[in-house]
């Protein structure tokens, strides 16, 4: 890899900001539509791992800097000619701890995750938006899975996420034909939570984050875990898992507050504990 290519590959960052109980994660590489390089992915994984064990957090917001959300992994830079072929099995050995780990963490972390999307959400960026609990996008945003068009098979959870969200027929349109999907269609399909005008993106996102961050965080996390488990379980297995989660949530301070608020006929004031 040339010095110029190496420099381009290294630029960019994933930054975080605490806003009370909300962790805001920004993919900051606007010159390349926030495509994620190796360093950014490593940072992203570290941020999510630390967030998973932070009891003071109650929601996560993921956004892109500039005009786009995320144009996926920077495959061009990662595969620039270097004169040396990677070891056999390089992808199988490396990717599960990188891009795939980001999707797994976003999907499974026991905190509500909200993505706000503008511009392009491509490949890994598209799947990141799909793995989130809620994605709000501007009506002119585009969701695209370009894997086949680039000559390789889909990854980063697309073959698991898409059929479950929109069905096999529409998943094939996106994965095999490479169709780009507007945010309006994505919302109609159930691919994302909501499509809004560009001027409403921030307000709509903040309203949703505020609602989630003021909820019973433990119960929300357990409900998220139960839904993930239930996708691969029988009804009986899913209900057994629900009982274990119910046992845990009934021991929280928020459960007691919920009952007391119901008795007093007032809105509950959950603390996330």
UniProtKB/TrEMBL annotation:
<dbReference type="Pfam" id="PF00378">
    <property type="entry name" value="ECH_1"/>
</dbReference>
<dbReference type="InterPro" id="IPR001753">
    <property type="entry name" value="Enoyl-CoA_hydra/iso"/>
</dbReference>
<comment type="similarity">
    <text>Belongs to the enoyl-CoA hydratase/isomerase family.</text>
</comment>
<dbReference type="GO" id="GO:0003824">
    <property type="term" value="F:catalytic activity"/>
</dbReference>
<dbReference type="InterPro" id="IPR014748">
    <property type="entry name" value="Enoyl-CoA_hydra_C"/>
</dbReference>
<dbReference type="InterPro" id="IPR029045">
    <property type="entry name" value="ClpP/crotonase-like_dom_sf"/>
</dbReference>
<protein>
    <submittedName>
        <fullName>Enoyl-CoA hydratase</fullName>
    </submittedName>
</protein>
